[in-house]
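Shift notes (night). Ran 1-(5-phosphoribosyl)-5-amino-4-imidazole-carboxylate (AIR) carboxylase while the centrifuge was going.
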Amino acid sequence: MTDPEPRILDLGFARLDLGREHRQGLPEVVYGPGKTAEQIAAIVTALMANNTGPVLATRVAPDVAEAVLAQVAGGHYQPESRLLCWRPASGRDFGVAVVAAGTSDRPVAAEAAAVAAAIGLRVSAVHDVGVAGLDRILQVRDQLSAQDAVIVVAGMEGALASVVGGLVHCPVIAVPTSTGYGAALEGVTALLAMLTSCAAGITVVNIDSGFGAAMAAHRLARVLEDRR
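Came back to this:
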């Protein structure tokens, strides 16, 4: 969908894409690292004034989040996911399960789950079901099969994405994480394993990008919503 009048708001230090909500169903999302609390607050204020949907800031450190919330009322901060959110959405008819292979993958899974919930998707979380104990993922097979999409978060060799991809019929979005010992190469091994999975059709996002996985689920949900 093309924005009939592309709208850019120049704040001096940032140029906001105000037309993104019209094109993609969500306002522009703020990436927190590298920005001051004052800059995040100014961007959030402008987005809230010029859009109607959820306003999110990702990867925000706790001290920065506290400073932003002191300047922009009505927001909520989730420390585990490091997500700041204003005007969370609800009631979208699209279910997504966020599956984490191990406890060390939990922060990335938390980001995926928090973003997906903030944009209104129905989220369920499944933790610590890595392939070293295969019965764990088999125990939740029916739960995963009932979803509209599954986000799989895994480090080490990234094998969980292939296992889930072979068990369910719905779209699988794989997130490689930087967890693992030396040859895991800070997530590169899991990334390459997921990209070369023999379970056909898996979508793979960037290393540690829980946010990217949630946005992929949003795009799937958006297509279904437009068709309805």
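Residues 33 and 59 are 6 Å apart (CA to CA). The chain has a mean pLDDT of 94.
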